[in-house]
Every structure is written in structure tokens, then in C-alpha cells.
Amino acid sequence: MLLMCKTRMSGDLSLDINIKEPRWDQSTFMGRAQHFFFVTDPRNILKSSETLEDARITVEKYRLGVVKPGLTEDELWRAKYIYDSAFHPDTGEKMVVVGRMSAQVPMNMTITGCMLTFYRTTPAVVFWQWVNQSFNAVVNYSNRSGDAALTTNQLAAAYISATTGAVVTALGLKSLAKRLPAVMSRFVPFFAVAAANCINIPFMRQRELKYGIPVTDEEGNRLGESVTAAKSGIIQVVVSRIGMAVPAMAIPPVIMNALEKKAFMKRFPVLNAPVQVGLVGLCLVFATPLCCALFPQKSSMAVSSLETDLQERILHSSPHTTTVFFNKGL
């Protein structure tokens, strides 16, 4: 206790900064967008293990009332956003690099660019859809809501069902594309990704749909687990993910369809893939944080909308609570 008091006295920074919440107002779209531009910043995946660990220690000690001597407010917020970009908000575990939201732009620009480039043959469609859905499965698991882990068997079953369902959907849509104009067939990967997201995300988060996710009061006190909240969170995530795919998979095909008619593209067809990947990346830099910002990560729901048994437990344990909060995931 004496050591903590000394540390508090030596720190120049106030202990009143609420780093449990984002720096910007999350009740507005612009506030959420500013928050996610930092969380999804691709440069975060380049941070070393030492930098991540230093950010974790800084954030966790500050939450305990211990301030590193000389720490400024900007340095504290920088540490918080480095921490948020790499550690799960509920479990506190470090996420695998490709599962972090900061990996979305570089990973998706590569995978999506290849999906849009190599879409003409069935083996290419199967391979790139499998790569895409495997990547999505890692992201969906890494950014799940709640703190209960899946067993190895549950995780394997979820992965197989999610990727298989998504790839089969993509193949079905590809067969329909044969009867469409060439420019329309370019949009098949987008429709496949949209449909696959509706399959992959619920499968990878199926434990939440079975057992529910933690719901809390405004102070963060855990009140129970809710399947209703899980369904709401997953629907919001599906909408956000499809929104991310719209610019990246709808705009480049139109541009590429026009570019491929130009003499220089006919002379240098090898440019097709890198140009497509670059266009996708440009779209994703903005689409990723803006679509993450469509809904607050800390979502809310009226107690009256929860399951009856949970309503009764909350009425008994916290009678004045009318709204619960939960992490919807990303």
C-alpha cells in the first residue's frame, strides 16, 4: 500500500482519466469512427512484443491507480489504443496477429484482390474462398464476445462448418454467374462474401448463441449471460462486415472492367492483380473503421427485451437497472 501511495505521488498524471472507455464519445458515429481509425490502424501490427507488453503494463497499472513517473495523457491514450488493438477486451488475452482488427486492411486487401482477380475457374474460386473464410474464422473467433473459450473440438467443428458452408455458397453463386453479363460476374465474389459472412460469423460464435454472452449494468457489474444479447451483437457484426466488403468488392470491379479495355493493360496484363489489390486496399483503409463504427462496440439493451428468467434475476439482484450493456464483438 505504501509503495502504491508513493507511486501515485510521484506520477504527474491525474487518476481521473477513464481509459476503460474510448477517448471519443461512442454515442455518435464520428466519435466511434475516430476510435476505430486508431484501433484498426495497420501500423499496429508492426508493434513489437515488447511494445505491446509495455502498453499492457501501463494500462493495467493505471487502472489500479499506479501511474508510471513522467507519463503524459497522450502517452497513456497511445498505450491504451496499442493495448486495445492487440488484447481481447473481455479475456485480456493477446490475439493472434492475423485475428486483430489492425490486420484487416493488409490481409483483406491481399485476399480480396486475389478473389476479384482469380474468379474465372472453379479451383481458383474454391481456393481463395477457403483462404478468405479461414482468415474470417480466425478474426471471428479472436473478436468474439464474452470470456468463455471454445474447446479444441468445438473450435474445429465451428471452423469446418463455417468454411465449408461459405465455400459451397460461393460455388453456388459462381454457377449462377455463367448466365450473367461479364461485368456482373465480377460481383459474384462480393455476393459470395456477403452470404458467407452470414454463415461464418454465427458458426464461429455458436457458443454465444447457445449459452449467451455476459451482460452488465452501467458500472460494469456482471448480471448474467444472455442469448438475446448474443443474437443482437452477432447481427450487428454481420451487417458491419458486409458493409466493409461493399466498397472493396463493388468499386474495384467497375474500375478494372474499364481499365482492362485500355491498351496499356492489354500490353501489361501482369499489372491486373497488383492494381486490383491496390484499389481494394484504398477502399478498405476507410471502409474498415467506418463500418466498425456503425454500431457501438459496447452495445445496450433494455432489460425488458432479455430472456424472462434473466429479467427476473436482474429484478431481484439489481432492481433499479433498466438497461444492460454487452460487448458485441467486432
* Widest sheet: strand ordering: 1-2
Main beta sheet strand tally, sense and closure: 2 strands, antiparallel
Beta content comes to 5-15%
What sequence of helices (H) and strands (E) makes up the elements?
A: HHHHHHHHHHEEHHHEHE
Counting DSSP E segments of at least 2 residues, the number of strands comes to 4
Query: If you average the pLDDT, what whole number results?
Result: 81
Task: Based on Cα principal axes, name the global outline.
Answer: globular
Alpha-carbon distance between the two ends: 38 Å
Give the proportion of residues in helices: 55-70%
**Which class of secondary structure composition applies to the elements?**
mainly alpha
Quickly count the domains: 2
Low-confidence stretches: 1-11
The number of distinct helices, counting runs of at least 4 residues, comes to 14
Rg, Å, rounded: 22 Å
Membrane topology: Multi-pass membrane protein
GO molecular function: monoatomic ion transmembrane transporter activity
Organism: Hucho hucho (huchen)
Subcellular location: Mitochondrion membrane
